Amino acid sequence: MSEIKVNFTGQEKPEQKETSPLPFGKIFADHMLVADYAQGQWNKGEIVPFRDFSISPANAALHYGQSIFEGIKAYKDQQGNPLIFRPDMNYTRFLLSAERMAMPPIPEDLFIGGMKSLVSLDRDWIPDQDGASLYIRPFMFATDRTLGVKASETYKFAIITSPTGPYFNKPIRLFVQDKYVRAFPGGTGFAKSAGNYGGSLFPTSEVKKQGYDQILWTDGLEHKYLQECGTMNLFVLIGHKAITPPLDQGTILAGVTRDSVIHLLRDHGMEVEERPLSIQEVLDARKKGELREVFGTGTAATIAYVEELSYNRENIRFDVSSWTIAPTLLKNLEDIHTGKTEDSRGWNLHI
């Protein structure tokens, strides 16, 4: 693919990018990348000023839900140069989501190469604030202008960016959901499909009315095994082991931060088990005094401390100020993100 064309805004950076604290996903950088798929191939793509799309009322994505996305972050190293954290994993997951949703694969030089060009162009939008980053949102949706339940023949791919602070700025309270279902084996739970999130909004709004921040989903068959939260994978520290639900059922996302944390935990000498974890096992570990820490991992959240876990009117509360593992992992990640420590695994893409 030839070099991506750039159409500059010619505008100065707005003062709102310096807002502190930065909200999540409400401020957007000057440019975006767009590319279109038709007649079996992608065009070259173009970086253009951030703007609205114009779509038909018969747009296939609006009616049949062919829409996928990713979440990635860019940081500044100690010399002020952009670093994008593990975009190769997001690219792989984007391809899996596209395949599951009957959508065409994106060429790597459009996804990764386009992202590099976009972040390089808008590098001044990467915040200097501690804990802040440039959130990168690649997404794709169907663009056929016809009704009828079938895969679209045309699509639009785009990448937008947003300077953002932490998704959660305090420890969170989780409600263990045993009524509604997020995903079943054989479904789309492993895909980053918009419909997965749309289906979670009503149950999440109900628990938020009760003062909780997120749902911790259980399996759809027995409501017995813990899966993931709406925005995060789950880690539970019991004794000297870290346990996280497995990916082999196809019901949870293969989180980039999840994978990174597994590596870091093992670096610290902790045994990690990727296996089914029941809520009863967590309750039993609490009674035995073996339940140490519970936290979520995700690109938006990085690492979110769980200060309360509620299940069947039983509340488990944690003194997060006494934790040692989750804070250490968070610092490890932040130091790698910003180049303060050696990136021995080559996770950062340097711009």
> What's the story with the biggest beta sheet?
10 strands, mixed
Oligomeric state of the chains in view: single chain
CATH H-level name of the largest domain... which superfamily? D-amino Acid Aminotransferase, subunit A, domain 2
Indicate the radius of gyration in whole angstroms: 21 Å
Which stretches are poorly predicted, pLDDT < 50 over at least 5 residues? none
CATH architecture descriptor text of the largest domain: Alpha-Beta Barrel
Number of domains as seen in the coordinates: 2
| Shape category | globular
Overall pLDDT confidence: 94
Instruction: State the separation between the terminal residues, measured CA to CA.
Output: 19 Å
Strand content: 25-35%
The string of secondary-structure elements, in order, is EEEEHEEEHHEEEHHEEEEHEHEEEHE
State the secondary-structure class.
alpha+beta
Helix percentage range: 10-25%
Summarize this structure briefly:
The protein has 351 residues and is of the alpha+beta class. Helix content is 23%, strand content 29%. The strands form two sheets. Strands 1, 2, 3, 4, 5, 6, 7, 8, 9 and 19 form a ten-stranded mixed β-sheet that branches. Strands 10, 11, 12, 13, 14, 15, 16, 17 and 18 form a nine-stranded mixed β-sheet that branches.
